[in-house]
Predict the structure.
Amino acid sequence: MRYIAPALLVAAPLVAATASSKRGLCVVSTETSQDDAIWTNDTDLSGTWYYNYAAVPTPDYKNKLNFVPMLWGAPEDPANDMSFYNTVSNLIQEGQNITYVLGFNEPDGCSSGGSCVSAATAAQVWKKQFEPLKRDFGVKLGAPAVTGAPTGFNWLANWFSECAAIEASSGGSSNTTSCEVDFIPAHWYGNFGGLASHLGQINGTYQNISAIWVTEFACADCTLEDSQTFANQSFEYLDRIPYMQKYSYFGAFPLLTEKGKLTDIGALYLNKASTGAIPHGSASTIAKFAGWGGLVGAAVFWSLL
Ligand SMILES: *[C@@H]1O[C@H](CO)[C@@H](O)[C@H](O)[C@H]1NC(C)=O
Ligand SMILES: *[C@@H]1O[C@H](CO)[C@@H](O)[C@H](O)[C@H]1NC(C)=O
Ligand SMILES: *[C@@H]1O[C@H](CO)[C@@H](O)[C@H](O)[C@H]1NC(C)=O
Ligand SMILES: *[C@@H]1O[C@H](CO)[C@@H](O)[C@H](O)[C@H]1NC(C)=O
Ligand SMILES: *[C@@H]1O[C@H](CO)[C@@H](O)[C@H](O)[C@H]1NC(C)=O
Ligand SMILES: *[C@@H]1O[C@H](CO)[C@@H](O)[C@H](O)[C@H]1NC(C)=O
């Protein structure tokens, strides 16, 4: 993921949209418990989902929003490590409602927050830890979330081939011919037309997998006004297309002001009346976002996707 602080313009208020059961939160890290409370106090959000790039829930959200565990990158010993499987199965046995898990974060990216995992290693981990979660607990599996770049498409195709090779070498002992997945998560940083065409390409390429999630997206290099227009168009579109199952917008900037108040985009996302609050840029805001690259879990801000 990348984030460029938008230029600061005053834009027209957004009009509240209808509530969406697809919308969730992409929790980068908590800035303060007070920021968390904006999301967790809100009963309209109970039942929605979030992920935090980790296998365990964020304490403030536990038992409030539905948690989706993620294995961010490859374990050191991919052939034997079972820690992701064990962590998720413990959550389920404790009574946590775990319906979905997510695979690797931007495995095709080797800078700026990507986990830089080879398709072969990721396929090995998939067979070892992910498919057993589905088999043993009925958990639905989200494929690795590649970047929106063409390298992402190549990585994903290679990953399916690597799983097929593992199946072939093991005599095809399982029921799947490649990597078993229930949905494909996508990332997109760009304009609305680009988002729609990217999703159309995934839907067209993987016709055997009927569900897509967008787990990171934002208008890249945009003014505030363009970000609002993008939010208006993309939230409506993602709510409408049938194959879109869940989505989460990336970046605190458009959603919360520095003082932890909802912006208009944040209000639209939560289906609230426009606040008229606009994010005020400052060196510290920009520094926070600049500090994001590569430091998943360490950056100090919240984000709602
Ligand atoms: C959240 O709820 C707590 C407890 O009711 C309250 O003290 C706090 O002010 C609320 N925070 C926000 C941001 O709504
Ligand atoms: C469990 O989570 C799923 C997916 O988020 C949700 O649809 C379902 O309603 C939840 N069940 C309970 C009992 O909360
Ligand atoms: C293959 O499918 C059968 C029948 O649906 C099921 O009982 C079995 O557990 C599956 N095997 C694996 C490895 O998923
Ligand atoms: C789904 O389609 C893709 C692309 O054609 C293929 O690589 C993959 O093996 C298929 N998956 C299953 C489970 O059939
Ligand atoms: C997604 O792909 C399916 C299968 O090819 C197709 O029928 C459907 O029209 C596509 N959906 C969109 C919104 O393009
Ligand atoms: C967002 O959409 C609403 C309803 O279509 C429209 O009234 C409003 O002007 C739009 N705002 C922006 C910034 O595009």
Q: What stands out?
A: Confidence is low (pLDDT under 50) at residues 1-18, 280-305. The pocket of 2-acetamido-2-deoxy-beta-D-glucopyranose (ligand 6) is lined by residues 11-12, 14-15, 228-229, 232 (CB under 6 Å). The radius of gyration is 19 Å. The domain at 2-304 is CATH 3.20.20.80 (TIM Barrel).
